[in-house]
Design a protein that fits this description.
360 residues; alpha/beta; two-stranded antiparallel sheet; 11 strands; binds pyridoxal-5'-phosphate
Amino acid sequence: MSGKVLHHRTPEFEKILREAWSGLQQVFATAQPVQIIAGSGSAAMEAAVVNLLSAGDEALVVVSGKFGERWAEMAERYGVRVTRWSIPWGKKLDLSEFERQLRLIPNCKAVFSQVCETSTATIHPVKEMSEIVRKNSQALFAVDAISAIGCAMLEMDKWGIDCVVAGSQKAFMIPAGLSFIAFSERAWEAQAKSNLPKFYFDMALEKKANTQRFETHFSTPVPLVTGLRQVLAQMQKVGLDKVRLRSEALAIATREGGELLGLKVFSETPSPSVTALITPTDSGSLREILELDHGITVMGGQDQQKGKILRIGHMGDIQDEDLLAFFEALSEILEKKDIFPQIKAKILPQLQAAPVLFPR
Ligand SMILES: *Cc1c(COP(=O)(O)O)cnc(C)c1O
């Protein structure tokens, strides 16, 4: 990424871009083209809304945390008639209730959900949700997989998902600035009819530029795409199943380490990409000590969970030592230093057994 910045409309860069596109198709598990948008993850979320729907359409949004709320707000801003299905934060998504909610909207045009709701570190059963959407409605099923793809199993085509969005700064391990979006055939049909305002996010123009000229419609952030190509090549080399296994191993280790320290897992269906632990004291000050005294950055809770949970990200290039350093620091801060050797003995063998993405 720190190398020479190529011009984005050159044969040299076209090769990189084509490799990035095809790597993304593998991670998304789709034969459909994946579009790259210059913008953070929310850009692809907005692109999903404005390309799939028309003014006055009805949509069901699963709101299980902050990011679900973002999707509901976005759609409302564009004049979509949104029904929020609000689930208490961290609770297991009830599939029969999901089906019931969907049936209450006979004319539902689209269902939006997160795969992993990052604000609560909760994973949702999108494969089963997709089946329910297909069986009970004509609606398109769009998922925000930003904090799930590359960590949790996700097969866009096989599971019949109509739209998947992702972003560069989570499991793809590069800085924020790129987001990715793919549409099913049904979704492209809806795209052609959609009348919501769009200019930068017109995915038909993007697809045309990609497939006819092998370039992006607008200027490309060349270093980010170059980094993406590198990460995708490494993921392919290691194998996607092993990449996911690594996140899962880190997730299990994080939950077990937390348990030994007496910290409960917040979510009923915890994610392989991020873990939320309930803290006995203000998580904001714990987070600050971790950062200032130990150089370890984790996140606190947002909104209603502010001060109550710590969120530990373990997607992408997290090494065994990173997680151990976190638990060593946390045991010290919680005045349970004597527990750290137990944690280490318990989680280290599992971590060492999980394949590393970028060996040092
Ligand atoms: C990070 C994230 C986003 C995107 O946020 P941006 O700041 O726009 O990149 C959206 N949804 C989920 C679930 C996320 O974790």
